[in-house]
Amino acid sequence: MSANNKPKAPANRATNSYVPSYQAPPEPPAPLPTPKVENKIEVPATMNVTTMTDLVDRIQENASILFPASPRLKVSTALAPSGLLCHGIVVGPKNEESKTSRYKVLLKGPGVPGVKSEPGRGRREALVGLLEEVERRVGKEMLGS
């Protein structure tokens, strides 16, 4: 027998006339209609920008309520030598009669992680934290008195 003359296998026929039927899956439900939303962006007539000077002024005003005996209060920020932590502080003179410029820390705000490459960002966040701390203490004092 040559390769072309091989006997062919009998056709696959069901003997009991059973033919499996294929049923297609049901159609997926139609997507819900998208709601129409109008973008209402309100643009304020005036924009309030809080600068570092505004923050320092507000801290000084509130700190003068907490420390009325110290007329020359100063607000500063302190950056750790590693540059990883920044604090906002309120300082007052150690001795009012003294002519030297010695100051003591009256109030220290929470430590804020600083970025050595961007020291301004850490300092601003430290001043905001100090302002919140001062306002919280002023509120406690006013409610407690």
TrEMBL record:
Superkingdom of the source species: Eukaryota
Compositional bias segments (type: Pro residues): 23-34
Positions with biased composition (Low complexity): 1-12
Residue numbers spanned by region Disordered: 1-38
The name this protein goes by in its record: Uncharacterized protein
Organism: Botryosphaeria dothidea
